Amino acid sequence: MIDAAAVVAALRATDTRSRGNREAWTPEWEAERAQLDALARAAAPGLVIERDAFANTWYVLPGDSADAVLVGSHSDSVPGGGWLDGILGVHAGLGLLASAARKTGRARTLAVVDWADEEGTRFGRSLLGSTAATGALSPTDFAALRTADGLPAAGVVEQYGFDATALGQPLPRLAEVRAAIELHIEQGPVLERSGRPVAAVAGCLGVRRLRIEFGGQRGHAGATPMDHRLDPVRHAAAFICEVMELAEVSSGLATVGRIAADPGLPTVVPARVELTLDLRHPELSPLEELAAAARAAAGQAQIERLFSVDPVHFDQQLLARAVEVTDGGEPLISGPLHDSVSLAVYGVPTMMLFAPSIGGISHARAEDTAESDLAEAIAAFGSLADQLLTTNP
Amino acid sequence: MIDAAAVVAALRATDTRSRGNREAWTPEWEAERAQLDALARAAAPGLVIERDAFANTWYVLPGDSADAVLVGSHSDSVPGGGWLDGILGVHAGLGLLASAARKTGRARTLAVVDWADEEGTRFGRSLLGSTAATGALSPTDFAALRTADGLPAAGVVEQYGFDATALGQPLPRLAEVRAAIELHIEQGPVLERSGRPVAAVAGCLGVRRLRIEFGGQRGHAGATPMDHRLDPVRHAAAFICEVMELAEVSSGLATVGRIAADPGLPTVVPARVELTLDLRHPELSPLEELAAAARAAAGQAQIERLFSVDPVHFDQQLLARAVEVTDGGEPLISGPLHDSVSLAVYGVPTMMLFAPSIGGISHARAEDTAESDLAEAIAAFGSLADQLLTTNP
After folding, report:
1. Which of A66, A159, A198, B123 is the residue whose CA sits 20 to 30 A from A392?
2. Beta-strand pair B332-334/B199-204
3. Tens digit of pLDDT for each residue in B68-83?
4. φ/ψ (deg, to 5) at B159
């Protein structure tokens, strides 16, 4: 059984040190990873600690069999993030290591993995370490990644042991993984509103993320009659209203997170408006229909695809077990992406558990979960992990 | 009769020197004003040239009476502006000076005025010199003006002879002005589409300019259900659609020139959206109704008034004369503001004439008018000026 109080204390200690600033590929992140290494060594003497070719850390406790259960999440955070996003799953995994190390006769090997750069804040690409590990990040896509200042990603990550020449192939050690589980906070309001401390996660929403540019005719705010205008702001506004309704009707999500007019002067009808549109849906076919309807609504606008991932359904057998350890409650669908999606897409039977997020707040210092809820979520996670570790291959 | 070919040649020479960069309160603007002084001296030996307390230049040719006809426009331009906006009226005025100087027996005094900082690009306040001259720019309003870098306007303009202690009172010499006229380009497409080379201007649209901030609840693009969102982008989009329709129905103009979401990340439902709304209408009551309807449509949004001017109707008697010299065509209403508005608001009988703008383009290097149209507009302007100069007081 995992010592939940110790896990919470470790989470508090990490937050006291880093204050939510553990952005991947920074000294702050590296310093915190050194702390995790020390904690893991103390928890399970004789543990094997390895950085793989993509700067992910593997804490491996060998079992009777090479068949492995992978317990993963991420220690990196957005700048100014909270005390739970990602690092909860890592500390819970180290708590599981400590618990497992005290037992004898593990049927399976336990691998706790701290995936590198889940957040994608530096290069605009989420799940960097886990997609690299599963071979899903191509050398071409990686070569195109840049920081906001235009620096190639390769120059930044190589200092942290990331070997870009190994991209495009799954790590051999993944072949021995029989199941993968991850404990994470929900980052949304659903679980808190239902009053439950933990829930199984049936899958993740698919995403279609677009950059859309509406062109127009620059004009003087006083001198251009309304019926002579090609006003891209008006076009974009009508588009936003339409696409939001389309998303609601299809039970999907639509977000325009960025919008700007050029030249952006109060007395000038803009020449163009640029916006980002993020569409999500739990099922592939409605997601594609929603994206097609949005493209149709955008008319002659220029559209660039920024990011795309299909909906993921986690493993059905693991889902049944996860529902059982979470008292039979209805599973959730995750809106945010997680490293578990990389593993599920690769083909490993994968499952997630969610703890509630107070007010649905995340990616902010105000991110929080009641300690009593964390304790119940950690207990359910430990129970699921113990089942998987003692299952005969 | 004004030598239109000489006026066009002078306009070309100014543009060759300044290349559209005559922003007020810059060395480039000052250099061009020195050229104008030299041109005026050559055109009318014995001319009185004075800078007033607000850096406006007065070129005065005394008549039999102290009663004066004021012919004004502005030599300053937006950065990267065209070869006609403002400077057309100044060069046409100097052409009129040359023509008047050749005659004898002028009933009235001719004052050609180059108003300082009509464009308002440095401090965000249009008609600076002309509103200062008429006493409409208060010391308090002036004290609040800043450059984009935060420098107080006072420190910038004092190097050019602007005396802020004289603000709040009309210049005494304005008491002798019996009529004011201005030749300007339309900066819109109406005149060109009607195929006319010149038109009288019956008045200027009133303006209500607002900054509106829609508040919302920041959320994760994947984790926040649509029905739990307070999405300020969606609110702003619906507002824009509504206010554009309101403007059309009322025969007014509505422009959203600037819009931005905060924090402006593709995967975050924004916490707030800020936009500017510029409303214009030729009549006061529909303008106020339009502004009230826009405020109502904005609901709980925070609204700040950026700028406000009521519609101006130019002098009816001068309008009849102007229609006559422009071959009886329908007068226009100006969308952009002009220094003539300052004089009309002050109480001087005022009139404008417009020359066409090809494609309605202005505030850009592509700004242009056919030379044959300029010649006809200058002739009509000269004809109107001659009538006013020879009228007995």
Report:
1. A198
2. parallel
3. 999 999 999 998 899 9
4. -65, -15
B276: chain A residues, CB-CB within 8 Å: 266
**Any idea what DSSP says for residue B145?**
-
pTM of the complete model: 0.84
Task: Tell me which residues of chain B, numbers 300 to 339, contact chain A at a CB-CB cutoff of 8 Å.
Answer: 306, 334-337
Are B286 and B250 in contact, with CB atoms under 8 Å apart? yes
The B residues from 23 to 52 touching A (CB cutoff 8 Å) are none
Nearest Cα residue in chain B from A206: B222
The answer to whether A264 contacts B280, with C-beta atoms less than 8 Å apart, is no
- Closest approach of B379 to chain A, Cα-based (Å): 24
What does B149-216 look like in DSSP terms, one character per residue? T--BHHHHHGGGT--GGGTTS--GGGGGEEEEEEEEE--SSHHHHHT-S-EEEEEE-EEEEEEEEEE-
Q: Kindly tell me if the per-residue pLDDT of A175 is higher than 60.
A: yes
What's the token pair of residue B342? 């300052």
Q: Which two tokens stand for residue A276?
A: 């980002």
Q: Provide the token pair at A80.
A: 């100014």
List own/partner pairs for B341-344 with CB under 8 A and 24 or more apart.
B341/B127, B341/B204, B341/B309, B341/B312, B342/B115, B342/B127, B342/B130, B342/B131, B342/B133, B342/B134, B342/B136, B343/B70, B343/B72, B343/B130, B343/B134, B343/B177, B343/B180, B344/B180, B344/B312, B344/B313, B344/B314, B344/B315
The burial of A291, by beta-carbon neighbours within 10 Å (0-12 exposed, 13-18 middle, 19 or more buried), is given as buried
Q: What single DSSP character describes residue B330? A: P
User: Does A103 touch chain B if contact means CB atoms closer than 8 Å?
Assistant: no
Question: Tokens representing A377?
Answer: 């979520």
Q: Is 60 exceeded by the pLDDT of residue A292? A: yes
- Among residues B238, B29, B267, the alpha carbon closest in space to that of A78 is found at B267
A276: which chain B residues are within 8 Å (Cβ-Cβ)?
266
**How high is the mean pLDDT of chain A?**
95
With an 8 Å Cβ cutoff, are A223 and B276 in contact? no
What is the distance between the alpha carbons of residues A359 and B354, in angstroms, rounded to a whole number? Answer: 60
Output the six-digit token pair for B313. 């109707």
Partner residue facing B223 (CB), from A187, A238, A265: A187
Contact A57, A98 (CB under 8 A): no
Closest Cβ opposite residue A223 in set B233, B256, B336: B336
Residue type, A144: A
B166 token code pair: 């004289």
- B272-327: pLDDT as tens digits: 999 999 999 999 999 999 999 999 999 999 999 888 889 999 999 999 999 999 98
Please check whether residue A148 touches B, CB under 8 A: no
ipTM of the complex in this document: 0.83
